[in-house]
Design a protein that fits this description.
With 274 residues, the protein is mostly helical. Helices cover 58% and strands 3% of the residues. It has a single domain, classed as Penicillin binding protein transpeptidase fold (Orthogonal Bundle), CATH 1.10.3810.10. A hairpin with a 2-residue loop joins strand 2 and strand 3.
Length: 274
C-alpha cells in the first residue's frame, strides 16, 4: 500500500511538472506577438478582466477607450510616464535587472509577492495577454512575452500600445480617454504639469486621481522638476504657449503703454522664432 501511494504521488508530481512546462512553454510561440506590429490589441486581457470583475460585483459599467497614434500624444506625457515607470526604457532589453533584484529582496523579506519591479514592456505583456494575479508562474509567462515583444516591436510601438492600453481610472483606458475625462482636452494638448499629474497616478489609478493632494501632488511635482532639469520643459516656451488673457475693453490704458507692450510682444515673438 505504501509503495502504491508513493507511486501515485510520483506520477502526480511528474504530471504537474509536465503541465507547468507546457503551460509556460507555449508562450514561446503563442500568441503571435508580430501581430502587434500593425494590429491594435483591443480589448486587452486586462480590459476583459475588469469587465468580468464588474459583472461579478453586479455593476452595470462600460469601459472607455479611444486609440490614438504616437504622434497624437503629448511628448510631455510620454516622457513623464517613462521617467515615472521605466526611466531606462529606450536602452533596456525589456527588463531592468537592478529593479528586479530590489523587488526580489523586498518579496523575500516580506515572505510574499509585494513588488514586481516591472518595466513598461513587462506591464504591457501582462495587460495584453495575462491576468493581474501575483504569482511566480504568471511572472515567468510575462518574462517570455516581454522578451519576444522587445525583439519583435520597436520601442516607439511598445510605448504607443502601452499608453493606449493602460488603465487611467475606473473604466478609463488609454491616454486619450484619460485626457478628455480629467482635463477636457485631447492627449496631444496636455501640458507638462497635466502630463506629470497623469503619470503620477500610475500604477494605481483606481486609488489615485490626478488632482489629489498628498502623494500624487508630491510625485507630480517631482516628475515636473526632473523634466525641467533635463530640459524637457522650457518654462519660457511654456509661457509663450499660454493663451493670452482677454483684454478689458473698459480699462483705460495710456497710449504709451500700448505702444511699449506691442514692441515687447514683437521682440518676444522674434526671439522665440529665432
Amino acid at each position: 500500500m505504501g509503495l502504491s501511494l508513493r507511486r501515485y504521488i510520483k506520477i502526480a508530481f511528474i504530471s504537474l511538472i509536465v503541465f507547468l512546462v507546457l503551460d509556460i512553454g507555449r508562450y514561446l510561440v503563442y500568441p503571435s506577438v508580430s501581430d502587434l506590429i500593425k494590429t491594435n490589441p483591443i480589448p486587452t486581457a486586462f480590459m476583459e478582466y475588469r469587465k468580468a470583475q464588474w459583472a461579478d460585483e453586479g455593476k452595470q459599467k462600460e469601459l472607455t477607450q479611444k486609440w490614438v497614434e504616437f504622434k497624437a500624444i503629448s511628448p510631455y506625457l510620454v516622457k513623464a510616464v517613462l521617467i515615472s515607470e521605466d526611466d531606462g526604457f529606450w536602452k533596456n532589453d525589456g527588463f531592468e535587472k537592478d529593479e528586479m533584484m530590489q523587488a526580489f529582496e523586498k518579496n523575500l523579506k516580506a515572505g510574499k509577492f509585494v513588488s514586481g519591479g516591472s518595466t513598461v514592456t513587462q506591464q504591457l505583456a501582462k495587460n495584453i495577454y495575462l491576468s493581474p494575479s501575483k504569482n511566480p508562474i504568471r511572472k515567468l509567462k510575462e518574462a517570455i512575452l516581454t522578451y519576444r515583444m522587445n525583439k519583435t516591436l520597436s520601442k516607439r510601438r511598445i510605448i504607443e500600445i502601452y499608453l493606449n492600453c493602460a488603465e487611467w481610472g475606473d473604466g478609463i483606458f488609454g491616454i486619450e480617454a484619460a485626457a478628455r475625462h480629467y482635463y477636457g482636452k485631447s492627449a496631444r494638448n496636455l501640458s507638462a504639469m497635466e502630463a506629470a499629474k497623469l503619470a503620477a497616478i500610475l500604477p494605481n489609478p483606481i486609488i489615485y486621481q490626478p488632482e489629489q493632494s498628498g502623494r500624487v501632488a508630491k510625485k507630480s511635482a517631482l516628475l515636473y522638476r526632473i523634466m525641467t532639469q533635463r530640459g524637457i520643459i522650457i518654462k519660457a516656451f511654456e509661457e509663450v504657449e499660454k493663451p493670452e488673457p482677454k483684454e478689458d475693453v473698459n480699462a483705460s490704458v495710456p497710449e504709451s503703454n500700448v505702444s511699449t507692450q506691442s514692441t515687447e510682444d514683437k521682440n518676444e515673438t522674434n526671439a522665440t522664432t529665432n
